[in-house]
Write a structure and sequence with these properties.
The chain is an alpha/beta fold. The protein has helices spanning about 20-30, 45-55, 70-75, 75-80, 90-95, 150-155, 160-175, 185-195, 200-210, 215-225, 245-255, 285-295, 320-335, and strands at about 35, 60-65, 85-90, 100-105, 120-125, 135-140, 230, 235-240, 260-265, 270-275, 300-305, 310-315. The protein has a 6-stranded parallel sheet. It has a 6-stranded mixed sheet with strand order 7-8-9-10-12-11, with helices on both faces.
């Protein structure tokens, strides 16, 4: 009886390997370093920025372009409230006008308002494909197959602290939809981080799942009570106008059975809309493009990731109009 041939083992590493040029450049950085990311910074962007800043030491400052989203504000409240480590991009540029800029988790100009003045970027680390509208950098590491920017940043930090390992794991779990959009390298990177993190997998997932305090959970339940839905062929689309926690409401609508969900808030600061789709529909619905259109309608900006995106603008009177536009564009995508 002839022995069966064993399948050949893949030679691909179970973690991403950063380019040598980027590793050398990272080591050569001196003086103040400004680390920044996209508008409405999400958990992947903020976690990666804080982990990289810790790795680089006191010379690194994290600078936001406008504000972070509700999930990252909740998860990184202590770090965000440290003005010596977290400030606006404008303030950081005024303080260190010649500091090199490291851009994380974004390259599209439409979601990078801090680069309206054509700032030069020294280093770009991203998992979104480059396009004709991309910010370009002197040194670039772009891996569109990666589930998150934190996957790449983890490869740059060989021995992260327990806290930084937990941050990077949170970024990976958040951007990969709890590993639904993950490949072998994502799992390999996460396994290495969990060996060093000060939280286990269950604790990390639970911290992402829902707001922890009773007031926040009540806001989500109220959002679900306000939700409206419609069947569009075989697809279920849901939306809600809420007073707060729009991202958590959008997540809850998907968990409750919606295929596509939009939740928005309008107040004196303007309008914010969070969008979610089932990860299996990411190839069918171009959620970042939809929210970019919605952002323009609000007089602001929008974008995001394949299954989680958002838009915001200064016009607080256009919430209903913006949600209607988002639903119409999603329906058009589904019918294609």
């Amino acid at each position: 009886m002839r022995a069966q041939k064993r399948p050949k083992k893949r030679s691909q590493s179970l973690v991403y390997q950063p380019p040598r040029q980027l590793v050398s450049a990272m080591k050569s950085l001196k003086g103040p370093i400004i680390i920044t990311f996209h508008s409405l910074g999400d958990t992947d962007a903020v976690a990666g920025a804080f982990a990289l800043a810790e790795h680089l030491g006191p010379r690194a400052i994290v600078a936001w372009p406008d504000r972070t989203n509700s999930e990252s504000r909740r998860l990184f409240r202590d770090e965000i409230e440290r003005p010596e480590k977290f400030m606006s991009f404008e303030a950081a540029r005024q303080k260190w006008p010649d500091a090199p800029i490291v851009l994380l988790d974004a390259n599209d100009r439409s979601i990078l308002p801090q680069f309206e003045k054509r700032e030069k970027v020294f280093m770009l680390i991203d998992h979104h494909a480059l396009s004709s509208n991309s910010i370009r950098a002197k040194i670039e590491w772009v891996e569109p197959q990666a589930a998150s920017a934190c996957e790449l940043i983890a490869a740059l930090i060989p021995s992260p602290s327990p806290q930084a390992a937990g941050w990077l794991a949170l970024g990976i779990l958040s951007d990969s939809a709890r590993l639904l959009r993950a490949d072998a390298r994502t799992f390999g990177t996460l396994a290495g981080l969990l060996e060093r993190a000060d939280s286990d997998y269950e604790q990390l997932v639970n911290s992402l799942s829902q707001p922890q305090n009773a007031q926040s959970r009540a806001a989500v339940l109220e959002g679900l009570r306000q939700a409206v839905w419609k069947l569009d062929g075989e697809w279920l689309l849901a939306s809600a106008a809420v007073s707060s926690h729009e991202s958590h409401v959008a997540d809850a609508l998907i968990s409750a059975g919606a295929d596509v969900a939009f939740a928005g808030t309008a107040d004196k600061k303007g309008t914010r809309i969070s969008a979610r789709i089932r990860p299996s529909l990411a190839d069918k619905v171009d959620l970042p493009a939809i929210m970019e259109n919605v952002g323009r309608r609000l007089g602001g900006m929008g974008g995001g990731h394949p299954a989680a995106a958002g838009a915001s603008g200064p016009d607080g009177a256009k919430l209903d109009e913006a949600i209607s536009l988002a639903l119409r564009l999603a329906s058009e995508n589904l019918r294609r």
